[in-house]
Design brief:
The protein is 75% helix and 0% strand. It is mostly helical. It has one domain. α2 runs antiparallel to α7, α3 packs antiparallel against α4 and α4 packs antiparallel against α7. It is elongated and about 65 Å long. The relative contact order is 0.15.
């Protein structure tokens, strides 16, 4: 099933439960218009946080879009990867020293346990361990700055991919039996 269609059906059900059909349709249309507008603004806000280097605010604001992971494998995959990178980079930025990087590596190592190579390792797990393996090999401040800049760029690139999936989701939602909703938000955005 189309992810936008399942999203539409899931939320529409709550509006049509025991209400007049016309009133319910009006409420549903208002909800979807608001969702499209607000989500587009949140994406722009998140991108702005990243461009300004405000990873803490990016990390905390990203939770507002978590509910969408239920409707798309791609939104699920990229939400988790940008959440993981931003959380780790936020912690690293708080103590941007080699010693801080070693402490952060120890924290994640204790949280996720000893690494065992898995033949069919999950994509996200592979990314996590690539990050941690590189972090483990930081011994100088220059290495730390290079590592941080690299993963800040990786975070930005993954955010661009996530944004493209969100915008396609919105376009699908706008075109999937929602003729009353203007298509201006997703189509006119800067993605």
């Amino acid at each position: 099933m189309n992810s936008a269609k399942s999203f539409k059906e899931y939320y529409e059900t709550s509006f049509f439960d025991g209400r007049d059909k016309e009133q319910a349709q009006k409420l549903a249309d208002e909800f979807f218009e608001s969702f499209i507008h607000d989500t587009t603004l949140k994406i722009e806000l998140l991108e702005g946080y990243l461009l300004k280097g405000d990873i803490d605010l990016f990390y905390s604001t990203l939770t507002e879009l978590k509910f969408l992971i239920e409707f798309s494998d791609n939104l699920n995959r990229y939400w988790h990867i940008i959440r993981g990178y931003s959380g780790a980079l936020s912690k690293l930025k708080a103590e941007m020293t080699v010693k801080g990087a070693k402490k952060l590596h120890a924290y994640y190592f204790s949280k996720y346990g000893d690494r065992r190579f898995l033949r069919d390792e999950h994509w996200f797990e592979k990314k996590r361990w690539e990050f941690l393996d590189e972090m483990q090999n930081i011994y100088f401040e220059d290495d730390l700055r290079t590592f941080f800049q690299k993963y800040e760029q990786v975070l930005l690139e993954n955010m661009k991919i996530y944004t493209s999936f969100i915008m396609m989701f919105i376009i699908d939602l706008e075109t999937w039996e929602l003729p009353h909703i203007s298509r201006s938000h997703a189509l006119k955005s800067n993605w």
